[in-house]
Design brief:
Layout: E1 2-3, H1 15-27, H2 37-57, E2 64-67, H3 70-81, E3 87-90, H4 96-105, E4 108-111, H5 119-132, E5 136-140, H6 152-161, E6 166-169, H7 181-184, E7 188-192, E8 204-208, H8 244-260, H9 262-282, E9 286-288, E10 296-300, H10 305-314, E11 317-318, E12 320-322, H11 327-333, E13 340-344, H12 351-361
Helix pairs in contact: 1-8, 2-8, 3-4, 5-6, 9-12
């Protein structure tokens, strides 16, 4: 199988990730719940993951809250910053992990910047919305549908200039592009463990520039007599028993990313995505591509997108078709009625993958 669905999850997981998870399952107890060797081994594994993540994302280890997914982290962050009825500005390329929690809170949402691969328009519309007055902002780093890299550093600077707290969704950038809690000055940055960070599913990180409101309440192994959640990080955001085996795997995945190097990963993904987009255009498909694009390309086949993905799968090519849990992004691009076929490269991107995909894509003609 030629796997080109890294926007959904990285696959297969690196060998160090598999080894770390297996090791944790036979050596780790419950962290913070005892002083015996197995419990202390778990403490070390969990803290090691925080340290590794903190070094990559420019923050302190205690600012790294371990979550079950990026969606989990986004919900915690959104419910911290945003109250029912608040005015919130978002980009035109947000995932349902952002839009559904905002809808559930009854937030007044302004969508700013809906032109693909046009950072100047994004910034102009973003500043306009901020000037009109909002209570908070939420924006993605990279569109999960089209690979558009938003100008997050500039958007963050505008939020700081206008005194607007903000959340960054780094679901499609963590592990392939620089992400910095310190430099951006974000209130929160959420990311999954299972995509660019190469960890297992069921893991994620929430980088916290402030204390989050507890998303759940329960035991933390600290301040057991206190019936409120602890008022310090990371305990405030981590009730219950952590997924130690998953966290050990995530630490190994982050370590793999650091060894490969962000710049090398980004170069490989971008190079193959650009080659893929250019050759799809030559075949006559409608392709969504442009400057400021990462390792993801969407295109329209001459048939139903789901059918196209099925045909590609028959030829050993794994891609994703449909709305990709991001109807707002499709609305911005004019593809809400059709969806797209999405090709998303990973850290192993290479010309053989692209060549095999393009050969199979010819069957769609």
């Amino acid at each position: 199988m030629i796997y080109l669905d890294n926007g959904a999850t990285s696959f297969p997981k690196p060998e160090p990730v598999r080894r770390a998870m297996a090791s944790a399952m036979v050596s780790c107890g419950n962290p913070g719940r005892g002083g015996y060797p197995a419990a202390m081994e778990a403490v070390q594994r969990v803290y090691g993951c925080r340290e590794t993540a903190a070094e990559l994302f420019d923050c302190r280890p205690e600012q790294v809250v371990l979550t079950s997914s990026c969606t989990h982290g986004l919900n915690m962050a959104i419910r911290t910053l945003i109250n029912p009825g608040d005015r919130v500005v978002i980009s035109g390329f947000e995932h349902n992990a952002v839009t559904r929690p905002l809808h559930g809170l009854g937030a007044q949402v302004t969508v700013a910047g809906r032109r693909l691969f046009d950072p100047e328009d994004t910034l102009q519309q973003w500043e306009k919305a901020l000037r009109q007055g909002v209570d908070a902002a939420v924006f993605t780093h990279v569109s999960n549908v089209f690979g558009y890299i938003l100008p997050v550093a500039e958007m963050a600077a505008l939020c700081r200039e206008h005194g607007v707290p903000f959340i960054v969704d780094a679901a499609q950038s963590a592990g392939s592009m620089p992400v910095s809690l310190g430099e951006w000055g974000a209130d929160f940055i959420a990311m999954p463990g299972h995509k660019g960070l190469l960890g297992p599913m069921g893991t994620g990180l929430l980088l916290c520039g402030r204390l989050p409101k507890p998303f759940m309440s329960g035991g933390t192994g600290s301040e057991s007599q206190n019936q409120d959640m602890p008022d310090f990080l990371p305990d405030r955001g981590e009730p219950g028993t952590p997924n130690v085996a998953g966290i050990a795997g995530l630490a190994a995945g982050i370590g793999t990313v650091r060894r490969l190097g962000l710049s090398r990963i980004a170069l490989r993904e971008h190079r193959e995505a650009a080659r893929c987009a250019e050759d799809l255009k030559k075949l006559g498909f409608t392709v969504f591509s442009g400057p400021n694009q990462g390792g993801t390309v969407s295109f329209l086949p001459y048939m139903d997108c789901e059918e196209a993905a099925r045909i590609l799968a028959e030829h050993g090519i794994a891609v994703r078709a449909g709305l990709h849990c991001a109807p707002l992004a499709h609305e911005s691009a004019g593809t809400l009625e059709t969806g797209t076929v999405r090709v998303s490269f990973g850290p192993d991107a290479n010309s053989d993958q692209t060549r095999a995909f393009l050969q199979a894509a010819r069957q769609l003609l």
